[in-house]
């Protein structure tokens, strides 16, 4: 029982903060990298997605 509490506390400590925002921002950044291949509008779309991902990273979770 005591080991379960320690294990759950360790998981809660690891999963707080930036890990939760990375779960949302990493797929956004990957999508932006794929979109950047498109000629003409790719770079501007990538920049917009990247700035949105930066905003998600700044959320204090």
UniProtKB/TrEMBL annotation:
It comes from the Bacteria. This is Lipoprotein. It comes from Candidatus Methylobacter oryzae.
